[in-house]
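Appendix B.2, paired examples.
Example (i):
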Amino acid sequence: MLADLVAAELGQPVDPRAAALAGAIAARYGDAARAVLFYGSCLRETRLDGLMLDFYLIVSDYRAAYGKSWLATANRLVPPNVFPFEAEDLAAKYAVLSEDDFARLCSVKADNVSVWARFAQPSRLVWARDEAAAARAVAAVAQAAPTLLALSAPTLEKALADPLDLWRAGFTLTYGAELRAERGNRPGSIVDADPDRYRRFSGAALAAAGVDPAAAPSPDARAAALAGWRTLQKRGKRLTLIRLAKASATFAGGIDYLAWKINRHAGTAITIRPWQRRFPILGAITLLPRLLMKGAVR
């Protein structure tokens, strides 16, 4: 059963410093904090120093998390909010979502790929308020892989002999639906980094998605699926820019982090000028065309 596979994966141990960092993030939000998930490339790293760890903080609702602050409205209208955090000699950023939004954005009801594309990959539940909060987090994450497969399978021209090819195709589509700094081979490397994991998840995830990997989609179904992905791609890239603009108000040094991430993943040597730090939204906007021309961001 997929939920059992997800629960087992989420429950795997992490570096104690990462777990302590998650607890410290949750403590900022008191009773509003429900769960903290650790995800991203740092899961595969044995040395965390010098890296930026990625977390999702799940809260009961935005009003409980922020009070009457404008941050509650911003998180509700354009989820998630993203904040920097440092503790245990580690640097991190964390995104905030309500339990309801987390469940929705991991499902086929999501209007963008941002959340379910990440949680179709391995993650860890490193802190939970109680068993009920943990169970809701597991149920939400268990929707992510079926969403990836259900939306990707109809785009294929023919049936696939190896389900890993469907995962690769799916991640390629998701990378095209956001402005990403990673190199072109990154989507395939996600699967190739742990093919046994994706094979282990394939049967249950395909069944949950209602996908028969041996059946080729009809031309009409394929055309409709590709049209849906074009919509996701346009919306996703707009959302990336909107979130970047919003992050300039919540994330001190956000433009420096953006440059660091692009340099790390795309092999570039971007330097941020003082005026770009002073006006990060304008700085990011003027930076983007050059990055697109060079192929550093796709």
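Example (ii):
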Amino acid sequence: MNKKNKKKVVNTAAIGLSLLMSSTLLVGNAVSVYASPTISTTEQNAIDAFLATQPVDGDTRNIATTNPAPATPITYTFPGTNSYVSVFRKPNDTLQLQDDYLFSYDPAGTYGHTPLQVKIKDWNTITWYRFSSTPEYINYFHDEIDTYFTQKITIIRQDDNTEITLDYPTLTAFRGSLPANSWNGYINIHYRPSGIMGDMPIEANDPRFKIYYTVYPNDYSNFAGDQATAYVYNRGYWRLEVPMEEKFSYDTIVQIDESLKTNETVVSEGDFGKKSTVFLISDFPDRSEQNYHLYTSDVIYNGLKTDFENATSDTTITDTFGWVEFSGDVHFTSSTNRIIRVGIDYTHYVADDGTVLKPTTYGLNPVDTIAGYQFVSSHREANGDLVHVYTVPSATTPSTPASPTTPATADKTNVFASAIAMMSAIFVSVVALVKRQKRV
């Protein structure tokens, strides 16, 4: 009788141990392990909420949108048509002629002929502005460029006293001062026939426009690049760029991936999409003072910006703004979404002959009682799924179920403490019964 009772107690303890082990699986499944240096708390909460819906392989959910940082605002303001200083003009450097000097004048297309001798009408009322120079030019000549420009003058031919009006003439003084009645200066010398670029209504500190100087196209005894600003009137020696860019947002998407195990995540970082172009000067259809004043840098930039914003696919934009024409290729790059692949697993209940005993359940779940079968063991598949294996009991099959997994140390302590408490209770009961029988 005592042995029989003891056997029952042992079986009860074994069953309790099995149940505790099963609960250990359940608790382990509930612990969130999606935390990662690349996954925020907000994202983790969204992932957990998605998993609570028991999604299947390939299911996705958009949990966030990342927007690009706002572009740095442009604080530059064009100072006005009467106050700007062209990118090609040297600030605060002007020239006032001190006498009625004699100049040589090269009419357009007369290079190689004897230049005309001319004087400037109303010479003492005209302000000349100096071209700026690149560091390369100064390094070669050890001096600033000595060419000036103004908007308009009238010259008087000395051979017949006829007058000629010139728009944006250049004045070249060959170093040093201009002594009275000397012939050492040129008006519109053949390689600097126009100074109109010196008055271009774009300033050097305008962040919307980028000016780049190119080298001289031929190498004349190491002269390459040294005359960059000596030829500012010629677009072949410089280029003007107007870059534009717009970035697009990307989404963070959770994607269920059954090939990953529960508690595994793989993150593919996202990237902003982009629309971009660089507008370049393609032509000068009309370079006149009036058009300069009407089509300033503000007008040009705002017009190009409108063209850029209206583009919806890869295209080439060409637009004219009075004195200048720009062209640019617009390119689109798609956004790359941030993908968080999250693993899921299932629990299978099968007989040792492969028979499915119970529908597959979502997640990692504990051993369950199945009528007519006895639990044998549990194992994990390569994809992370949990498989509980059962068998049909036989006369020789022990009635004590095998442990599905090894419990944690704390669980072992609790189990053995419970078992010892139960054994102590039984021992006390047996002792009391024996004493009672002795009294009888």
